[in-house]
Amino acid sequence: MAHARSLLFAAYWAAWTTLFLAPLAVFLLSGSPERPIRRATRLWARGILAGLRHIVGLRYVEEGRQHLPAKPCLIVANHQSTWETLAFLVLVPDVAIVAKRELLAIPVVGWFLRRSPMIVIDRGNGTQALRTMIDEGRAAVAAGRSVLIFPEGTRGGIDAPLRFKRGVELLYGRLGLPVVPVALNSGLFWPGGMATRAGTVVVSYLTAIAPGLTAAEFLRGTEGAIDRELDRWRPIGLDGLGAKAA
């Protein structure tokens, strides 16, 4: 049954995404206006989340949303799944996500992500990637947008220790914004490939960290806060989850 749900969701993903070819053509002819493209991107993401809910049985809940300030902030989240990459387009409207260039290769979706606009970096070009991340992060904040980064750089397993890659501390120092750490357990349900496991993803917004700390203090505080929150789910694991559901 899980495999059948996964195949059905894959077909739904493809069909839903194909519907956005028409607005893509309209946006191209009208000069690719940013705000309408961001609205269309959020609509696409909502449709994907709806498909996950109704086809796969994968829902989500938010905890601690009061920690998100009304003004722009730097959101730092762990990365376990494709789920959070698209869900944050809905959870934090107009957020500028620091994304790897490979995402732009996804048909239709990549076009919308490029022009939303996201902060797209080439991880193979370290110095230029950092410069792009900082410059475009500043531009996003000046436009009233929060910035989201997955500082692990790639997806990690639910049991993997949290390790930030170089760069997030520079972004923190240059933007001068409060930081909201976010812990997610999406890897329990969508660890790779296409989503197959029903359940509830928890998005836990943690207490904000003030700007102005040293790089070491920032890294220690942010990594530690997310890591401690992830301990809520680590003892369960995929085997334990299946046994509990049975």
TrEMBL record:
Pathway: Lipid metabolism. The keyword Phosphoprotein does not apply. GO terms for molecular function: 1-acylglycerol-3-phosphate O-acyltransferase activity. InterPro entries: Plipid/glycerol_acylTrfase. It comes from Methylobacterium oryzae CBMB20. This is Phospholipid/glycerol acyltransferase. Residues 73-187 form the Phospholipid/glycerol acyltransferase domain. Keywords: Acyltransferase, Membrane, Transferase, Transmembrane, Transmembrane helix. It is an enzyme of class 2 (transferase). GO terms for biological process: phosphatidic acid biosynthetic process. Its EC number is 2.3.1.51. The lineage of its organism: Bacteria, Pseudomonadati, Pseudomonadota, Alphaproteobacteria, Hyphomicrobiales. The chain crosses the membrane at residues 6-29.
